[in-house]
Amino acid sequence: MFGKKKAKPHIDKEQLELIQNAQRRVRQKKRLYIHFIIFLLGAVFLILFNVVLGFGEDFKPLDTNWFVFAILGWLFLFLFHAFNVFVTSKFMGKDWEQQQLDKLLAKQQDRIEEMKQKFIKEEMLIAQSEAYNDVVESNITTSDAKDKPIKKTELTIIVAAGENDAIGRNNKLIWHLSDDLKRFKQLTSSHHIIMGRKTFESFPKPLPNRTHIVITRQQDYTAPEGVIVVNSLEDALDASRTDKQPFIIGGGEIYKQALPLADKLELTRVHHSFEEADTFFPKIDYDIWKEVNNIFHDRDEDHDYPFSFLTYIKR
After folding, report:
1. Residue with more model confidence, 140 or 105
2. Which of 53, 72, 92 is the last residue before a domain boundary?
3. Which pTM value belongs to this model?
């Protein structure tokens, strides 16, 4: 009997809300009852005030004693109070507002859940489609090598060369073709560009919006931050493996090494022979390379030589 704590009554949230609502309704009805008593006493007082004491005997709007209008006005206030207690407060009070808000939130939650399920379903379908495509791609083979799966990257050579395959002299271009430079920027932006050390050093600074990979035999070669330095073309291709279309941009020796490995060739053929050149692009074997695009540009005030944009893919 000693040491035992008296158990405290437990009231859950719903019971507490019912009690609070009941208490609130009791208070509302008490106020209405007081209003009714005051209304009756006030009506009797107004009648006595007029009939017994004679106050306002001569004031009869519409041939009716004035206290009748006063009592009717008071009655209207009483009825309005009763309407608020038994109708508005019961069905359209704060509880009603909260119920409507809860219903609205529930509908919104259901809608969000429906959209979420729809989104998850779409994501699953996309994932299944991508997985299916990956399986299909992994099983498709080329006509020349049935056991070799399709490559995930498209190694592209981009070069401007004269009719005699000249590409430069003293590590510089022999010509200035504005449209060719614009095309180079358009094609290589956001990609890895692979080049030899001399080609890289011919730039005033690294080209914007591109990842530079420089091939050099120098073991201690230093380059600006962000430039990747490797010692072989194989290492350069490995460094650009995340890019679906890395570009080989020069010079002559790198072109020679990359041509057998390339999948695509973007060639600007300058229609002129440059005998003074000291660097040349390798001869293109047209049995291996197929022309798929050819856009001619004639000579004009901004271009000293006519040229053509040629695109080749490996057969």
Report:
1. 105
2. 92
3. 0.54
